[in-house]
Amino acid sequence: MALTARDLVVTYNRGTVAEQRALDGVTLQVERGSVLVVVGVTGSGKSTLLKALAGIVPPEAGDVAIDGSPLPRPAASAVGMVFQNPERQLFGETVLADVAFGPRMLGAPDPQSRAMSALERVGLDPEEFGARSPFSLSGGEARRAAIAGILALEPAYLLLDEPTVGLDSSGRRAVLDVVEREKRDRGIAIVTHHPDPFLPLADRICALKEGRVAFIGTVEGLVRDPGPYLAAGLRLPELLELQAAAIGRGARLERVGTEPSEVARALLAARGTS
Ligand SMILES: Nc1ncnc2c1ncn2[C@@H]1O[C@H](COP(=O)(O)OP(=O)(O)OP(=O)(O)O)[C@@H](O)[C@H]1O
Ligand SMILES: [Mg+2]
What we know:
Strand order of the largest sheet: 6-7-8-3-9-10
Number of strands: 10
CATH class of the largest domain: Alpha Beta
Strand content: 15-25%
Helix content: 25-40%
Order of helices and strands: EEEHEEEHHHHEHEEEHHHH
CATH architecture of the largest domain: 3-Layer(aba) Sandwich
CATH topology of the largest domain: Rossmann fold
CATH superfamily of the largest domain: P-loop containing nucleotide triphosphate hydrolases
Bound molecules: adenosine-5'-triphosphate, magnesium ion
Largest sheet: 6 strands, mixed
Distance between the termini: 42 Å
Structural class: alpha/beta
Mean pLDDT: 93
Oligomer: single chain
Number of helices: 10
Shape: globular
């Protein structure tokens, strides 16, 4: 079960002087029960990729399939996308009404209780926050409410565009907790300029360069062969750079770690192998 992009090509303003190819033959999968982290320099096509996977931007060539069938357009509730700065799109009179809006529009049974459950899952107590105006929330709370609005649709696939930008460490932790919990039932793709905190949750990393996939693979694969990733104009997250450097100096790491304590253990175990 996967959300699959095959040979996707997206061009904005086709046939005009402002023509811009944003995706140029992208093939990848977001599998259920897994997290794909998408990185790339500004303008490399990350947001366009998510929009194409969500059926919001039509591809000029190639296709998107969901669990083996063509993606309906709009993709309705099967694919939920949380845009960059989604808190700007909150508009309900209360937080609960805002989060319940999507399921209500879809005619889902009991939108209210879906909204309550979604708020709980993003760590906002529905009793405390449900009756408040969305405009009274802090930035981090509003971000979580916006994510709850998408979760309330119970999408099989969840696409998050820079979900941690501008959040403090507890806000980031809350988003990471949501990703960790929701990963069990859904396929998740996260676009970010700061992949570091997502590494322990990432099943695969994809690096885009000028609308093409420069690298796709596991963290392990990335550390052992970082060349294509670096060639996309990116820097390895520090923990990974450390391990790549150790390997480059001949250390035989048994496995690549994504958390400091794990990495320390792996490096100590490899001591003397270089
Ligand atoms: N609506 C649009 N109309 C025209 N060109 C667009 C549009 N949206 C994106 N582009 C162009 O397509 C390319 C890819 O843009 P995209 O937003 O996908 O990049 P990104 O990797 O998400 O960048 P960032 O990290 O800055 O968010 C860029 O050259 C951008 O200028
Ligand atoms: Mg973007």
